[in-house]
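Hello K.,

You asked for the raw outputs rather than the summary table, so here they are, unedited. I folded two proteins back to back in the same session to keep the settings identical. This is the first:
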Amino acid sequence: MVNYLSLSIWNGEKNKQTFYNSWITNKTITSDTVSFLASCARSRWKIENEHNSDFSPHVLKNHGYNLEHNFGHGKIHAGEMYCLLHLLAFQMHSLLDVNDEDYRKARAYARRRDEFFNELRFLMRRNLFGSWQELIVFMYSDIDTG
């Protein structure tokens, strides 16, 4: 047996819903516990999706990695392999961000992570680079001087 809890927050001035979510729990929901359970559920969601944004599931889903909950269709273990490859790429980018000054400059030039990936795709489609380092330096050095 499970219990269902939903929360809707409205902006009275705009007469508009600003938040809605629902949760399933095995906890007992009463008039005394409902506020506490909703607060816990919102806090957990906030931690999972917003806390430490460079290393959150939110980044893997929405900022260039495109990792979805149901990612992968195909033969045996295809979904797990795609997920593993995404996590390895994310780990490598995190290591580069900590250890490679040129990578940090290129990321700063592109601003957002998804823009960085788009810039990489664009440059690699139109240019041949001798090395990763050459590509990264070209990216942040390619500032239009007009």
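The second followed immediately with the same parameters:
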Amino acid sequence: MGILGGTFDPIHFGHLRTAQEVGHAMGMEKVFLIPAASPPHKSGEPVTAFRHRLAMARLGVEPSDILEVLDLEGRRAGPSYSLDTLRQLKSQFGPTADICFMLGSDAFLDIRTWKGYEKLFDYAHFVLIPRPGYDIETLRDFIFALDASMEQTGEKDIYTMPSGNRVIICKSTLIDISATNIRRLAGSGQSITFLVPEAVRNYILEKGLYRAHGKS
């Protein structure tokens, strides 16, 4: 299974296309999108209520054959640390569950700031999606710098951690959409058509989300 976490404020086609495309490319049975209830790296920044972000994520994945949304971080108190989420998933699906943690290369380059980041590789494979403007050679160098005992497999861009789990660079269609820009556009009354699924756009309009963002 794959998992893709994020604030999803709001979920957009960049999130959805990446999750769907990488999931199919790697033969995943399911890709779970997990909205963060209390994102630790966004402390001090205004974040839309979890119930709205969860609802939009569920609307966004409806057309997909493999995407599904889990609300487990919304049912857990405190900051939404990835380490706690991976432990919970292993407990929920069993110790033999093959979990692929999907994230953008930009987020991975900051992984040393994450809670217990060294232990993350004990619970899951990491699937890295290169982002626009990020040099892939820098990403490769960073992977090797994380652990001196990292081994490269016979396949390019697949690396094995001491835990036996792998770090995999998996390219996908680059859709450079910014949730920040979507909030700004929606707040100023401009169109967000073709940036988010129509059901998500309707939800934003119905609930009056992001109105304050147009005033900044």
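Residues 73 and 84 are 9 Å apart (CA to CA).

Happy to rerun anything if the numbers look odd on your end.

Regards,
P.
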